[in-house]
Specification:
alpha/beta; Rossmann fold; 38% helix; globular; disordered C terminus
Length: 234
């Protein structure tokens, strides 16, 4: 359980928050959402209570969450790729009883170009795509929502090397464009490659912060497995 966890995030930064070693890795939003303390995110002057709010209100506030369990929590496997990508914007862009197809196809083609999605057939069901390309579609689905805060839980889980490069490049690009990007990942090489700051958590609190040249795969692993001073003296 997080204990009075407070994060302030600047523009153009990619931050991960690493939970204690040996513990499950729900992302910080999930951690914040339990316990007796405040569950509020402040985004561009607007406050969002992430316990009581709805997914629609969260998205409207500029918050996007890319879950780790894409087949269960992130994608509808038995509908088309273009429908999956455009789903969060159907109410905003479509009209009553008429969704329209041109804007959906345009978004899909943008995803193909931005993330090298293959195959490039928008009518194919998502279940026809490889795991890496499914992950790219999931990322595009929320990147096109123009989020101010983009949260990704294990964004390169079960993807090949090429897909990993495309995904990390897209996350870095989103941060460089001004979004706050937060990543939860066990892939220390990925974190060292794209992050501006790494936060290590233990017993629900942040116990270590790495920045700048201190962010390497080795330093992250060392920080995660370092015993607290009080434990070392037992």
């Amino acid at each position: 359980m997080a204990q009075q966890l407070s994060l302030t995030h600047e523009k153009c930064r990619v931050d991960p928050a690493l939970p204690p070693r040996g513990k499950p890795r729900p992302f910080v939003l999930t951690v914040i959402a339990v316990g007796p303390h405040s569950h509020v995110l402040n985004v561009a002057g607007a406050s969002v209570d992430i316990v009581s709010t709805s997914p629609r209100k969260t998205a409207s506030a500029g918050i996007a969450f890319v879950p780790s369990q894409r087949p269960v929590e992130g994608l509808a496997l038995t509908i088309s790729a273009s429908d999956n990508v455009s789903l969060p914007r159907i109410r905003r862009t479509g009209r009553l009883w008429f969704v329209g197809r041109s804007w959906q196809l345009e978004e899909f083609q943008t995803a193909v170009g931005m993330l090298s999605v293959t195959p490039s057939d928008p009518s194919l069901h998502v279940q026809s795509f490889s795991g890496g390309n499914q992950q790219k579609l999931l990322l595009a689905k929320w990147m096109f929502n123009a989020p101010r805060v983009l949260i990704a839980h294990e964004p390169t889980q079960a993807v090949d090397v090429g897909a990993r490069d495309d995904i990390l490049r897209a996350l870095r690009s989103k941060a460089d464009a001004g979004a706050a990007v937060l990543i939860s990942s066990i892939e220390t090489d990925d974190l060292a490659r794209v992050c501006d700051r790494v936060l290590i958590m233990r017993a629900g609190t942040i116990v270590r912060e790495l920045t700048g040249d201190d962010i390497t795969s080795y330093s992250i692993i060392t920080a995660v497995y370092d015993e607290p001073e009080q434990d070392a003296n037992k």
